[in-house]
Design brief:
This protein has 80 residues and is α+β, with helices and mostly antiparallel strands. The chain has 2 helices and 5 strands, in the order E-H-E-E-E-E-H. It has one domain. A hairpin with an 8-residue loop joins strand 3 and strand 4.
Length: 80
């Protein structure tokens, strides 16, 4: 937790077995398509939200965060 609360970083895990299907679902409902960067992290611009949403896939989960993609930049170790 950061001192101001709003500055905190959180990552939400969404179980998924099909990356392509989840990206297609997001793109169907989002006003702009999620774009996959060279780092494997998708960026989604959401209207009326002051920052972007970021997500990537690993271990049968979508890891989702907003404002700062640095928590997703580190390699995600396989689940044991």
């Amino acid at each position: 937790m950061a001192p101001n609360g709003i500055d905190s970083t959180a990552v939400v895990l969404i179980p998924t077995t099909n990356e392509k299907a989840l990206v297609e679902l997001v793109n169907r409902f989002a006003p702009s398509a999620a774009e996959k960067g060279k780092d494997g992290i998708y960026t989604l611009k959401v209207p009326n939200v002051p920052y972007d949403v970021y997500f990537r896939f690993a271990n049968k989960y979508a890891y989702v965060t907003a404002r700062d993609k640095s928590p997703l930049a580190k390699p995600i170790a396989p689940a044991s």
